[in-house]
UniProtKB/TrEMBL annotation:
This is Heavy metal transport/detoxification protein. It comes from the Bacteria. InterPro entries: Cu-bd, Heavy-metal-associated_CS, HMA_Cu_ion-bd, HMA_dom, HMA_dom_sf. SUPFAM superfamilies: HMA, heavy metal-associated domain (SSF55008). It comes from Knoellia locipacati. Pfam families: HMA. Keywords: Copper, Metal-binding.
Length: 67
């Protein structure tokens, strides 16, 4: 099991959190996504470590950016 923490910019409300959570959750191997709206911290638990580019693509698909 792998846990990684990313920082996402641009989230300002609960819908933002839901969008990022949904997109990141769709990445293969992801088991849990925990978003802190205040800090932009996105903690991702997955079966194997994720490529930064995969996470970046998911975050951008949701309409936000990796810091
Ligand atoms: Mo509402 Mo969060 O437009 O961007 S989803 S602030």
């Amino acid at each position: 099991m792998s846990t990684q923490t990313f920082t996402v910019t641009g989230m300002t409300c609960g819908h933002c959190v839901a969008s990022v959570t949904e997109e990141v959750s769709e990445i293969d191997g992801v088991e849990d996504v925990a978003v802190d709206l205040e800090t932009g911290s996105v903690k991702v638990t997955s079966t194997t470590p994720l490529e930064d580019d995969a996470v970046r693509a998911a975050v951008e698909e949701a309409g936000y950016q990796l810091a």
